[in-house]
Amino acid sequence: MSPMIDAVFLLLIFFLVATMLRKDSQDIDIIPPESVSAVKLIPDEHTLVLGVNEQGDFFWQGVGVSLNELHHRMREVSVVDPERRIRLDADFQTPFVYVVQVLDLAQFNRMHNVGIRTYDNRYNRQ
After folding, report:
1. Of 1, 17, 57, 58, which is most buried, counting CB atoms within 10 Å of its CB?
2. Percent of the chain scoring above 90 in pLDDT
3. What distance in Å separates the CA atoms of residue 86 and residue 103, rounded to the nearest whole number?
4. How many CA atoms are closer than 13 Å to the CA of 25, on its beta-carbon side?
5. Between 54 and 20, whose confidence is greater?
6. Where are the beta strands (DSSP E) in the chain?
7. Residue ranges per domain, the chain?
8. pLDDT the model gives residue 68
9. How far is Cα 41 from Cα 34, in angstroms, rounded to an integer?
């Protein structure tokens, strides 16, 4: 009986640890633009994910923020790691002025490693 109790406790600990390692989704609910000449990059867990939807709402790692908050957070990251990769997720119907605002913030903070996510059949399967 004692070995069975030990096995149950080990399984319990395993499942507790496994659920804590789950990563939160950084994606926002958008339809990215299509591209025939996109460069496929290997996903990186340290990539900073910024987003803007078609209403002009800005997102930092999947969480909605204001434009001022986005600027403040980008400034903090640029001080620590100016070469950090940035992935910009923008809906294909987003007015370009919002995309340019995010790109301008990156350039202002001397962050030049910026890419825009486009539609990919494997990634965007439902």
Report:
1. 58
2. 32
3. 10
4. 3
5. 54
6. 48-52, 58-60, 63-65, 86-90, 114-116
7. 25-116
8. 93
9. 16
